[in-house]
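Side project, low priority. Logging it here so it doesn't get lost.
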Amino acid sequence: MTNLFAQTYKQHQSMLFGLAYRMLGIAADAEDIVQDVFAQYLAMDTGAVLNEKAYLTKMTANRCINLLKSSRRQRETYTGPWLPEPMPDGGSGQASDSVERQENIGYAYLVLLQQLTPLERAIYILKDTFGFEYGDIAEILERTEQSCRKTFSRAKMKVGQDTGALQPNEEMEEAKERFVAAFLRASDTGNFKPLLAFLLDDVTMVSDGGGKVRAALNPILGIGRVQAFFEGLAAKGSFKGGFERMVMNGQLGLAYRQDGRITRVICAEWEPGGSRVRHIYLIVNPDKLTRFN
């Protein structure tokens, strides 16, 4: 690897991984695409490349779109709900370390992006997260500027909220600390009633087992059913003494350790303002927990 290419890699790798991870929701796939992009770029005559960042972004975005299209059938036949892969802060690999510390890819944001088509996702991320201008996005994705504006507007309506509301603030961070502490007490005692103060009445819990381990095949709706679900697992001894606080995707969450391995991860999406939880995400698919182990 030449010094010039090493400098290019160091300058753009984190941003490209952040783009690919947001689009795909799977860190390993994102890393593979970024490595392929740099391998192809290294083999090219780059003398004619006027804007290196835009060119690498174009290569990465288009590869992600193609992969999402080709894996659509696989996602449609997935057992139960499909959730993105969470990432522990300080995990293995330069990409995950730098992106998680610097760019804070919130888990709830990743889930919201799954509502968008591959093209909508690319345009929305490039504009909303990375601040590309419409003219640059149009060139990167080989679309008209007007088309990109319309697609971004449509994507924003689908997401249905200001994603800035999902960014952490001091009040939300304090609420998360109290929520995690309350959950740890509840998982030890089996009494989840004190936890209910942190949940909206219409809270929804989604679990992803991917057919590999037992998980709810449909979302659990409402505070009473969520309480019953957790209390049922606790009664079976499934929670006893195993949960611990853990920072993932730049935000505080919960992980369950069994026989030295993380087998469950819980992430929460908070209502705007950060006072109560509106979605709970339970990831138990072992393929999506490899970075925790």
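Brief comment: The beta strands are 199-208, 220-221, 243-248, 251-258, 261-270, 277-283.
Revisit when time allows.
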